Give the backbone structure.
Amino acid sequence: MLDRTGPKAPGPSVLIVEDDGETRAALVRELVARGYQAIEAADGRTALARWEAARPDVILLDLGLPDIDGLEVIRRIRRDALTPIVILSGRYEEREKVEALERGADDYVTKPFGVDELHARLRVALRRAAGPTADPAGRIVAGSLVLDATRHEVRVQATPVDLTPREFEILRVLLTYAGGVVTKARLLRAVWGPEYQGEDTYIYVHVSQLRKKLARADPSGSLAGLIVTEPGVGYRVRPSEVEPLPDDHL
């Protein structure tokens, strides 16, 4: 039950929580073929540990797990993060599906399901996770920069920018709350998890690297000062930079 992704792929990461080994292997195979990075878990405790360690972009969760209930997995994740969760449910689990949605799941697919339907629902969940500043395709534009939450990529003047998963998530959170201050504590919870509270050095180093990468990708200098430091509090993105994208962009 290890991460089967091998070399880092550019697409979004998905934590697949499914106790049936054959079903889980099929999901990994199909989603990796569609550009996802797949992380596996066969039970709830492993799922929570791997979610905490990897902070995936989306979670695919079977409710019928052999140790802790899938609903409990949702509850624990929702205490700390808004990571999109898509439920894998049995045909006759109507009550469980409703309860899962009430606890914070974003969507569900009923077994048996088609891979195309599953892929579509994952993409919708990822678009929603981009936040209210995103366009219907899950993209946020800030000047010459475009963050695509669905493809899990950042471009500056149409050129890809190679960001680490942590840098991507920091930028996504800041763009989602453009104009508002995002505290260091909130960034730590969203990107690293609750056990990293007080580790301000993590934020400083990664924001510094993010700024350098954006500056190198933008020789025009239009992104200079995009991420503004609020001393002693956190960071913000200049609100005037964030605007809707036309549908035919990219």
